[in-house]
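Exercise 7b. Backbone tokens:
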């Protein structure tokens, strides 16, 4: 079977959306509330799309060998998931998922529990689902397909740019911190006002990242604010003590002046009486 570029792009978006639906339904059930599992703003998980594209390209020759397709699907999906986890951690300094508590895991990035379903899914996709989808995809006129895919691709690229900017914004902010409480507060208010909805969505979808990306930065902000508060409190206490000392000193001076004046008055009064 000869695969056209349009077919691969169409499969990429179909499975990216299907992966997003599956992930979002799964985590929504666990969280007991609707949760968008996607890293991006839109309804897609690209790792599923890339996985299927790789399987589709690399396993064409094995489409009749169910055993080879199963194990090669595990190998391809496992490699992709491991690489994605590794590079996302390097870029964002955070683990987006962690299988460390599950049996037969490799560095917490992949585990047997998820790889077996990937193998089953890869086999089903290669042998039955892809042929069914491609049959109907090929029925769409090329010009119309190109327009549809072009529009979706543009939206997808814009989504990637926006989503990456949102996540990297916190990293950039942490580098720009100065000992300026007003500046920190303004940055926090700006983030809360403009992007907190998206931050909260990502934290709900990927609970692991809050330990490294969001809450670590938020803790850093709070720490600096607390340090500034302590400095201000110390300055206020010092000022109070200084004012108190000045008042006491002034009181002592006034008492001294009054005592001197009183003594002078008494001295003058005695001199008058002697005369």
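Sequence design result:
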């Amino acid at each position: 079977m000869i695969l056209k570029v349009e077919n691969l792009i169409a499969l990429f978006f179909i499975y990216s959306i299907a992966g997003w639906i599956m992930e979002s339904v799964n985590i929504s059930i666990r969280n007991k509330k609707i949760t968008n599992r996607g890293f991006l703003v839109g309804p897609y998980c690209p790792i599923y799309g890339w996985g299927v594209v790789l399987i589709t390209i690399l396993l064409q020759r094995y489409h009749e060998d169910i055993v080879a397709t199963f194990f090669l699907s595990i190998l391809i999906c496992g490699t992709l998931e491991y690489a994605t986890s590794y590079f996302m951690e390097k870029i964002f300094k955070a683990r987006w998922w962690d299988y460390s508590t599950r049996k037969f895991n490799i560095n917490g990035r992949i585990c047997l529990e998820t790889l077996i379903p990937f193998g089953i899914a890869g086999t089903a996709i290669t042998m039955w689902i892809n042929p069914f989808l491609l049959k109907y995809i090929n029925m769409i006129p090329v010009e119309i397909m190109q327009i549809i895919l072009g529009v979706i691709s543009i939206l997808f690229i814009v989504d990637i740019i926006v989503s990456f900017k949102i996540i990297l914004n916190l990293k950039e902010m942490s580098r720009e911190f100065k000992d300026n409480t007003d500046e920190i507060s303004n940055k926090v208010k700006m983030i809360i006002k403009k992007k907190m909805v998206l931050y909260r969505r990502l934290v709900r979808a990927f609970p692991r990242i809050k330990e490294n990306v969001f809450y670590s930065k938020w803790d850093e902000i709070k720490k600096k604010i607390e340090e500034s508060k302590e400095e201000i409190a110390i300055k206020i206490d010092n000022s109070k003590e200084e004012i108190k000392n000045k008042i006491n000193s002034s009181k002592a001076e006034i008492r001294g002046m009054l005592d001197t004046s009183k003594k002078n008055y008494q001295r003058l009064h005695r001199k008058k009486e002697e005369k």
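Instructor comment: The beta strands are 105-106, 110-111. Confidence is low (pLDDT under 50) at residues 176-186.
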